Amino acid sequence: VTFEDVIAEPPSVRSFDKVWFWSHALFEVSRLWCYRFISLVLAVEFEDVIAEPDGTHSLDGVWKLSYTTFTVSKYWCYRILSAIFGIPVALLWGFLFACISFCHIWAVVPCIKSCLIESQCVSRIYSLCIQTFCDPFFEALGKIFSSVRVALRKEV
């Protein structure tokens, strides 16, 4: 499933180029990471589930048939679930990331910019207070304790 399969805008009605670009990028990233996560969770091998201890083995025919049944059923179950839920889940993820992008663009970034502007004013006042009150105090303490000499002796 590609982005164009899920979100298809007709050529006559297109959103802004950057909106289209970022929507496509978010869709692809979410699709990739969701697929990796699900693949990691579902990446179960036959030997991980059905493991016969050394010295105890079933007949070769039973083992091969069990292996084939397990592998084929896992393969087809995944394909059927992907066919049924793949597109709706991709649509939901696309919607979720669209909402997150909207909130980020219209709420989060402006709040961060506003905080940065306000913090510059506060940081200048804080800097002036430190330079005015603390710097002279610590310089005086430094001059007082600059003549102190410490000698360590090891007594046996």
UniProtKB/TrEMBL annotation:
Keyword Transmembrane: yes
Pfam families, per the entry: Caveolin (PF01146)
Parts of the chain that traverse the membrane: 80-107
Cellular compartment(s): Cell membrane, Sarcolemma; Cell membrane; Golgi apparatus membrane; Membrane, Caveola
UniProtKB keywords: Cell membrane, Golgi apparatus, Isopeptide bond, Membrane, Transmembrane, Transmembrane helix, Ubl conjugation
Presence of keyword Cell membrane: yes
InterPro entries given in the database record: Caveolin, Caveolin_CS
Membrane topology annotation: Peripheral membrane protein
Family recorded in the similarity comment: Belongs to the caveolin family.
Role summary: May act as a scaffolding protein within caveolar membranes. Interacts directly with G-protein alpha subunits and can functionally regulate their activity. May also regulate voltage-gated potassium channels. Plays a role in the sarcolemma repair mechanism of both skeletal muscle and cardiomyocytes that permits rapid resealing of membranes disrupted by mechanical stress. Mediates the recruitment of CAVIN2 and CAVIN3 proteins to the caveolae.
Protein name: Caveolin
Species: Goodea atripinnis
